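Q: Hi! First time doing this. I have a protein sequence and I read that you can turn it into a structure. Is that right? Here it is:
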Amino acid sequence: MNAPRHLTLRERIYEEIVRLIVSGVLPSGGAIDEKALTESLQVSRTPFREAIGTLAKEGLIEIKPYRGFFVRSFSRREIEDLYELRKMLECFAVELAVPNLSDRDIARFEVILDEAVAALRLRDMEAYGARDREFHEMIAERSGNAALIETLARLALQIQVCRVIANESREFAERAAQERDDILRAFRARDKARASMLMRTHINDVQEAVLARFPKGDPAR
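A: Yes, that's right. Below is the predicted 3D structure, encoded as structure tokens:
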């Protein structure tokens, strides 16, 4: 499963299931074939179900009695609520992180965002998701606020599932490229107010791309 050696078996299974979900191989609302997955991963049911239990607690998996395991689906209202919370927390993280950024941090952000935009233009959504997640995790880490880091980490995977739902267009990719340049300029200037505003704009764009797939009045399930 190409996992680091220091991970436990349960953690390795967890990471692989997450990869399958955020890459869209296991789609939102879709059933998880326990037999097929345990065979492909060459693992027993016990560690597999332990990993599933962890994912259920984190809001990625739904366990339905007598029916099995399903990738969580999201209603329009749930997505709106999730992104509104994300905007508040991420903008706060930016305001705390920007004064702490070193030139080396900014250089790393530039590499991450270059790779994210390149992947988006190629419609490689798995690579884009990985770089985008790395970008936001690094901002959270540089905030230095342990409670904020923990809270954002819990939201991150749900955000990844929501992003898979969106069918990002070429126009979305070009906007992301422009946002990338603007955010980097704000970072270099250590302008936390502008960086926070740009982050809100970026998350708004992603939110709109996701919500475009959900007509207003969409039922909860």
